[in-house]
Records
---
Amino acid sequence: MTDRLARQRQRLRARQADRFGRMAEQVHRHNPFYRAKWREAGFESPPTLDDLADLPFTTKEELARDQDENAPWGTNLTFPFERYVRVHRTSGTTGKPLRWLDTPASWQWFLDCWLETYRGAGVEEADRVFVAFGFGPFVGFWTAFEAAQQLGCLAMPAGHLSTEQRLRVMLDDGATTLVATPTYGLRLLEAADGRGLDLAGSSIVRTIHGGEPGAGVAAVKRQLAEGYGAMVFDHAGATEVGAWGHPCGVGERLHVFEEEFVVEWFDRSTGEPLEPVDPTASEAAQPVLGELVLTNLGRIGSPVVRYRTGDVGRLCAAGCSCGRATMYLDGGVLARADDMFIVRGINVYPSAVDALVREAGGVVEYRASVRRRRQMAEVELEVEPEAGMDSGSLRSRLQDLFEERLSLRVPVRIADAGSLPRYELKANRFTFLD
Ligand SMILES: [Zn+2]
């Protein structure tokens, strides 16, 4: 580590310690959920950042149980209920939806974190930002939209518009920046293609993707970049955590916004903490996949401390060539931990399957079913080919790729055009038949 980077890291740590201390002080005094948890762990007075490793983890199941037992809002509230002005809900992809309340200050903190994503993607005041999500209790739309407005951009909602209408608005009103899930970004391309519309030649100069892993998968990113003729950026956040991950423009790197989040790295199989990979080490660093554990420092109204995010990726130590002193995920979030399966002793995630399908090319949409309780996981694919694609050669191309990369024989079924589901928010292409 260079001296400059070491100094930057030191300053960052001091800032985190100060913010953590102030948060813990209020939370220990007024927040019933954390006060009980911390007292049980032996903390009669507010913990400091140095105590973090001795504090218990927080899980989504635990928060859901708390909201069940103390319906409807649960007890993770630092202030009187009257102070809260917004409520959002998680998508419920992994269980029952959580309700999440914000005070004006907590909400502004969330937007400030989102601004890092816009800055990392080079978004400026003159940009027109089209946010292609419906209005709903999903926090992603509101934060992306309001943060764009606060930056001085023209914020363009997509609301209830159909995919075709969205394409028209983007093209007619000169959107420069598209915010969408990677899946929906591809869906818009497919729809434009079917209508003879040219997105690559449009005013869109960049796309920003969140809501699911994907924009960090090189093959998906390439498809988006070519389709829009644009730079493609990744973003990561969660309703209960905040907008924690932002791009910097170097490769497929997603920085953790450490000014506002303390990051820990955790090996799910051993239950032990992990060290981030040092990409500058002389020996080639082995990929270390772990689960991201986050503590947010500015959402005092309803914080998470040592939260097991369920997001899996490869954390690299600070020292990115972009000049930021924060750690980053190489390739972004690779998967949700619950979606993992094992093939010949190797962990496989849906994003690996996704990467191979995109690499094969010529696939409009697909669906996979995975039997993972067998001695060796079995995967079956159903694919919808692009118009004019020879389905026989697509099938053998896919089978060869899976055989070659994952040593996996994957039966491939060809689906009729338009028969597989399309997604706007969280793609749900994987069925796990246990
Ligand atoms: Zn960077």
---
Amino acid sequence: MKVPNPVKVFIGRACQNILLTKDNLQKKGISLDPLCLFCKTEVETMKHILWDCPSIVDVWGACGRIIQKSYVAGYSFANVMVVLFDRCSGEDVEVYAEIARRIWFKRNSVVREGEFIHPNEVIRISARFINDYREALKKMGEGDFMEMTRVTQVFAR
Ligand SMILES: [Zn+2]
């Protein structure tokens, strides 16, 4: 993936399932409400919060052609990446990686600050991000990888 390191690191950790989702915390023996903060109906696993959660389904609709939400079997988030690499262009996977990271950060601010964020807000922000990202890519023309990396870094903040 041609994405800045923080995005690569995030996707790597998500695929290894080492981020502190509620499911992972529970497996470490911590007693908590395991339900997803967004939909409050299913256990918050890595794959759930970054792919399956019904509250974020609309994100993929907002992405237009980029990511068509599709069914991914199994419990592992790594499966999602395998399917995406199989069905989507490299560029689309890169955009998804950014969005996934953003969703995780949103989720963390809900946990840390007790801030309530309506799922639509996450969708709205993500959709805006994609549009800005596309605009930036359009403006810079094609094939300028260094420039793309720079723009991606700006959006990754
Ligand atoms: Zn959920």
